[in-house]
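Lab channel / #folding
Pinned by the channel admin:
"Please post every new chain as: sequence first, then the structure tokens as a reply. Keep commentary short and put observations after the output so the thread stays searchable."

First post following the new format, from NK:
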Amino acid sequence: MTKRVHNFSAGPGVLPVPVLEAIQHDMLALPQAGISVLEISHRSKWFIEIYQEAQANLRQLLNIPSNYHVLFLQGGANLQFSMVPLNLLRGQNAPADYIVTGSWSVKAVKEAQREGEVRVLWNGKDDKFVRVPKQTELTFNSDAAYVHFTSNETIQGVEFAVEPDAGEVPLVCDMSSDFMSRPLDVNRYGLIYAGAQKNAGPSGATIVIIRDDLLTKVPDNLHTMLDYRIHVKKESSYNTPPVFSVYVIMLMTRWLMNDIGGLAEIAKINHQKASLLYNLIDNSNGFYIGHAQADSRSLMNVSFNLQTPELEQAFLSEAAKHDLHTLKGHLSIGGIRASIYNAMPLESVQALRDFMIKFQTNH
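Reply from TO:
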């Protein structure tokens, strides 16, 4: 078997070995189809079966009610930053409320402002995005078209442990980097979107879960590819969908259901992995400096600094020699970032922890 290093990439993220092996098996030809998964038509019965299973598995894992539609789109979260206000804000004569907790929600606000009035309910910029707000810090407006938040900020490593309670106002969430990492109550949301490349598959597909009543808010005369109603009507196949990505999403949902045992079980594993690193950071006597406040820490992206840039560069160089890769923090905040998504093996996190202990001892 080809040697695999410990891949802490923020995205595309690590995939489980059983999923990669299944892809390898089907790469030359799907069983009974005689065609590679890279070649099958989105109109073929083989892909329709894949599509239907991926949808059914997501519905089962997340307990998605029947009045929600599941779409497989493209363009990542960046396109959803525009599609959400195009569909839900344009022509509503009501502002949209945004909670700003990091780099991705900043981008979401910028795109929404092109379509209508945006109110920022809370902004963590002055504190360098080290935490998410408490419910008591948020004053929601009953006249809002929707409330948007980012459940996990990949760059800053902050995460909502519980979604905000916006009352009757539709809650819209960019869930790209913690989607399917834990159970959630879909009924509390109007719309969820998530790029697949963190926890659900490879890049190329964006999962959108939208409540049926929100489709009545969509204005007429939108560009066809930007209209949620079209994608619902055409079952995500108005244009050629991301066939391979949907196939891998199907495999990832199988892995979560059959190998892991569901979202409650993966949540336990994710807590265990994150605790290994955060406990070490907290007990390093300031050698490692966590970016996020303790009550806002992400279970997916552990961001931290060392005392000097030179020490951080030495950390990255030595880590690579121990097969610990893609640990460099985002350019906007520097430091170190370990992305430990669902498929990150516990053994890889243990290897990073052990290296961090040794590095501190030596420096």
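NK: Residues 18-259 form a domain with the Aspartate Aminotransferase; domain 2 fold (CATH 3.40.640.10).
TO: also worth noting, The chain has a mean pLDDT of 95.
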